[in-house]
What does this fold into?
Amino acid sequence: MSNALYDQAVEILERNDLGHYTVPTHGLYPFQWNWDSALSALGQYYVDESRAWTEIETLFDHQWEDGMVPHIIFHKEDDGYFPGPDVWSTNRPTPTTGITQPAVTGFAVRRLYERAKDKDMARKRALALLPKIAAWHDWFFRARDPQGTGMVAIIHPWESGRDNSVDWDDAFERVPTEGVGDFKRRDLDHADPDHRPTHEQYQRYIWLVKHFRSLGWDNSKLHDASPFRVVDPGFNAILLRSCADLAALAEELGEPELAAHERAQAEKGLAAMENLWSDKHQQYLCYDRAAETLIDSPSIGGLLPVFARIKQSRADAIAEHLEKLGQRVKYMVPSHDPDAAEYDGARYWRGPSWLIVNYMISDGLLRDGHEDMAARIIADSMKLIHVGGFAEYFDPMNGDPCGGPHFTWTAAMVIEFLKLTGEVA
Ligand code: DGY
It folds into this structure.
């Protein structure tokens, strides 16, 4: 059974592989997505070690001069997606969007390096990626933390990867919808509208894109000019974990200065993250930087920090929180608290469970000594695949498959879990 699942996962990776990059799924997402690629490379490693490195290298081939790594690379034309290159108008040799996504590459590259069977190849390729990833991290702390607080803000919900999370609802109210004009969404041609963001949210997404475009995509201006500036603890935790992992990798590769720099960034950020802890919710909360208020929204964004090396007492509290969540859902981990009024078990990031989140959370729990909760999350992830197939995300109550089918990073995570548990040698 495990071997059959493994084979199915490999088939999905191959089906979505366009040679030097992988689409998340054909139809709904026909280009290269940033954090999809980084996480998918982990699964790809077991199929073809060299190909896994290529996935990440392709992403960094499209890094901007200022250090940003875009959230989508439009490698070829496809009018089945909106908003396409003409809406973004970033004037790049290969069109890209003008915003970024969770910086999980530092983590992924360290893991690829540690696992490498071909160490010479891995060393060469990791050494070439090292300064590029470091430049991206520096970009974050420069462009998205201009006051030097240690925490970076997202300026568009799409940057978080958690597009329509309840976390953004209030802050998003400040983003106008006037003047966006008519547009035709293409995601609804490929996915159930009940699983996707609403029309009003799309209007605000597009307003922000047009606003940033009118500022020439100049990252020295965008942060302060955005009406939407939110500090997401999950997003920051991914970045800080990547800083720490890049530091360890740099040390190993004989780059002690770079290592010290990355380590300092990680430590500063982790200390600053403590300001976002909520005793009431026993998790971290988002911070609305424009309104200067904590956002009282119990989402997965505040549990994801266990992926980074937060204090042990916080990791313990998060494990306990997860324990309680686990009594209320069948399949961990819901992206929003099921008791909250806004919870919606099928709608993208307002409730559904995602295997990539399960992977990052269980990775942190295993490191911090919470093996039982990690095992529950991994077991639930595999059950979801049995119930719902290799979907983009799943309803945490009944395991219904949601979003797009044949999903690359879902398949990659299945490979990861099967290897981690030893179910597949
Ligand atoms: C989409 O198109 O829904 C993506 O999530 C944006 O990155």
